[in-house]
Design goal:
The complex is a heterodimer of chains A (524) and B (501). Chain A is of the alpha/beta class. In chain A, strands 14-15-16-13-12-18-19 form a seven-stranded mixed sheet, sandwiched between helices. In chain A, strands 9-8-7-10-11-21 form a six-stranded mixed sheet, sandwiched between helices. Chain A has two domains: 247 residues, Aldehyde Dehydrogenase, Chain A, domain 1, CATH 3.40.605.10; 194 residues, Aldehyde Dehydrogenase, Chain A, domain 2 (3-Layer(aba) Sandwich). Chain B folds into two domains: 265 residues, Aldehyde Dehydrogenase, Chain A, domain 1, CATH 3.40.605; 181 residues, Aldehyde Dehydrogenase, Chain A, domain 2. A seven-stranded mixed sheet of chain B has the order 13-16-17-12-11-19-20, with helices on both faces. In chain B, strands 8-7-6-9-10-22 form a six-stranded mixed sheet, sandwiched between helices. A two-stranded antiparallel sheet of chain B has the order 1-2. In chain B, strand 16, helix 12 and strand 17 form a beta-alpha-beta unit. In chain B, helix 1 runs parallel beside helix 7, helix 2 packs antiparallel against helix 5 and helix 4 packs parallel to helix 5. Classes of the chains: A alpha/beta (524), B alpha/beta (501). At the A-B interface, helix 4, helix 6 and helix 16 of A face helix 2, helix 4, helix 13 and helix 14 of B. Chain A: GO terms for molecular function: aldehyde dehydrogenase (NAD+) activity. Chain A: Belongs to the aldehyde dehydrogenase family.
Amino acid sequence: MSDHRARILHADGTRGLLPGVLQRFTTAAAAEEPISPPVQVNYTKLLINGNFVDSASGKSFPTLDPRTGEVIAHVAEGDAEDINRAVAAARKAFDVGPWPKMTAYERSRILLRFADLIEKHNDELAALETWDNGKPYEQAAHIEVPMVARLMRYYAGWADKIHGLIVPADGPHHVQVLHEPIGVAGQIIPWNFPLLMYAWKVGPALACGNTVVLKTAEQTPLSALYVTKLLHEAGLPEGVVNVVSGFGPTAGAALASHMDVDKIAFTGSTDTGKIVLELAARSNLKPVTLELGGKSPFVIMDDADVDQAVELAHFALFFNQGQCCCAGSRTFVHERIYDEFVEKAKARALKRVVGDPFRKGVEQGPQIDDEQFNKILRYIRSGVDSGATLVTGGDRLGEKGFYIQPTIFSDVQDGMKIAQEEIFGPVQSILKFKDLNEVIERANASQYGLAAGVFTKSLDTANTLTRALKVGTVWVNCFDVFDAAIPFGGYKQSGIGREKGIDSLKNYLQVKAVVTPLKNAAWL
Amino acid sequence: MAAANGSGKGFEVPKVEVKFTKLFINGNFVDAVSGKTFGTRDPRTGDVIANIAEGDKADIDLAVKAAREAFDNGPWPRMTGYERGRILHKFADLIDQHIEELAILDTVDAGKLFAIGKARDIPGAAHLLRYYAGAADKIHGETLKMAQRMHGYTLKEPVGVVGLIVPWNYPTTMFFFKVGPALAAGCAVVVKPAEQTPLSALFYAHLAKEAGVPDGVLNVVPGLGPTAGAAVASHMDVDKLSFTGSTEVGRLVMKAAAESNLKPVSLELGGKSPIVVFDDADLDMAVNLVNFATYTNKGEICVAGTRIYVQEGIYDAFVKKAAELAKKSVVGDPFNPRVTQGPQVDKDQYEKVLKYIDIGMREGATLVTGGKACGDKGYYIEPTIFTDVKDDMSIAQDEIFGPVMALMKFKTVEEVIQKANNTRYGLAAGIVTKNIDIANTVSRSIRAGAIWINCYFAFDPDAPFGGYKMSGFGKDMGMDGLEKYLQTKTVVTPLYNTPWL
């Protein structure tokens, strides 16, 4: 089909009824030249030991603009040799110092200055993030980058409040527990929220006094390089945070299997998470934190306000182009309100503003790259083939870049692939249920257990669902409420460990018990 | 010794400018309702620095009303902890920008060493504020393990309007010991600074406003204890009171709280803290530490190490060296960078300290060095050491709050534990030893809120501080310091159909 407009109309079957939407899609996604990003790419090399350096091999790789598929910049491509150099720098920065030997207050001051610098460079960082990732600029500029500053300040506040316990042993002993930094932390972050994932990982590692080798996703290497430059400007000693751009099988694997890395934290797919865990086990048994995939249920009870539920479920799935590990991708709706819900969900999806993420008012930009783009389209075909009803969307949008129509399937059955697997795109699956026990069972019938949404006015239903759902986060009458202080992580194959909050500190601390006898103790 | 007093030679006394002399209520500097003022004096000379609006009951009523409104209807407790933390960070940055000016105020008002003020007191206040700024978003309630089919959790709520009565010896530090955690918790406060030292507190009020602390959240009412202080302590609309000062006044505060609305009280009161020096100590290190512990801030510090127990094997050598070191003190104008000891805060304190020195001599202790006032004006006193002090002498029992060291000899660990605990106070203690077992035994045996082993005054924002026995109750600093500005509320609701309990 030569005309993408026809395809849109064909897909949702509403030819001629939605001129506004049609026009929006047309102008934003295809007809106009992409808006020129208000930022320059200044940093493309690896950041090792405080310096920007070429990769040992001299190789580089292109990072692409998802709006067009065109090259933004060529970035130095790190592999095992570069990881070795970065780990050596981090090792020295940890073993010799000064980082872990500074007072926590001094570390916190650096993190606070870093937060101030992030705030100062908010718009450039947001633009870089949008350019490399395709996410709406307003989302990056008003939510994500400020949240990065918030996270850094949060962890700055923890640095001088890391407490071990004094333990009452059953005997005349004085027992202290020291929480020591674990050492060199390897961190592998994904492409969907490059800066936020950076902050989730680097923040607690630094607050606890560790040094870091960070491998960014090959899709989105730019913002981490920029922000780490700012971190050094804030006073971070050299070697404390090293950033190596590169690919999973080379750089990522080298980091996960490195004998001198004391800890590895990974966020990404469940499949890759398994490899990371295996590499850690095969090398030096480094402890692993994993934040992996999800297929999170969003349960809407029949007492819910349907309009609100539709809006929230829409947000839960489509936010960030559906590229959220915790996306509410199984929308369970009570049968009594099911038909109304589907109708309204469709209307909402049709109103979704898709287009150049730099344009004001755009809610949805392109998917990250052609691989994800094609994968999502395959899942959509699979949904159609397995007999789900395509309510709206279902195809690409525009002729270049990786835009996909907001897509909804109804009549989705639990056994379908689109109800089982993580699509990581703007595809909402709406399932019908009858009663509470049934939906609990079905919601839990998943290999994943990252998050869940619960939408109800009933306190008792909320409490029952909250405790019954086997997931790491339950959002009751809200979704995607993230904060530095709220722990996040998965049950089952959604991962191991928790990030953010006080729980995240545990990932980066060793626990040392110190025991000595007490003579003539006044009390025990 | 101690060629006393500020002749002004060889150093420059910075220009003193007093910008704020009125009460700070509801975001504005205002005169006292009565129109009265009082003179705050320079202890170097006894001269009046400035006349300050004198708050009394009527002004406290206005301040409490403003705080009540700010708490009940204002934005402060309704902000997120992060937002409050941002404002406190800004407040800390503003303090950093005014270090010199603030240090000058504390030096002229309290006779404190200017160099120490610039290096420690004022930056330390910013540090403390940053600590609590970072704590504001880390106030956690807990979900509970109920023994019934119930879901239970606790909320840590700000306690409300808090009265804070602050002493004169560390006008800046004490202000932030209390204001930092109270504001982080989301409370609104009425601060009564000491009448001897109101200047920096008013400056902090100004900076708080500039930082964005909403009107009414921080009120500062200078005044006298029996009028303004008593009005705060007995106010029916103050939800919590925190006081630092003498044990006698602490008792009055607690009585006033009991007789009014039963407001919870925390008290940080007097001390007579022992330092125990064992035979195995490095003698020079021990002598230096004890000198520091006794004479810091001219002995005007509640945790001063004032009962020095030295084991018999090193006692004589210790006495000799301690006297030599005390004689090296330079008493004089606290603006002089060579000076190690400034004047006592006011005439009352000065006379009280001299009276205790006289009592010490009459009770039969041996005066080894010092013992006299010095200089021809102001309130300077020589660093003083008594030996042959007996446990029951007044100078071994009472808080002198001046540069007076009482040295005593002991033989065994058991004996010194008993002696060290033979006091109505229990604020702090020092231990000087290389022996791990002695250190551990004595640490657990001394009934005091802070034990410093081979160090002294090891205050830290993360280290809770407060007394045993008649030294008070409730902790300042650390996460414990937040607790007293929080109420715990338990929330419970039945669970039906739960897969686990």
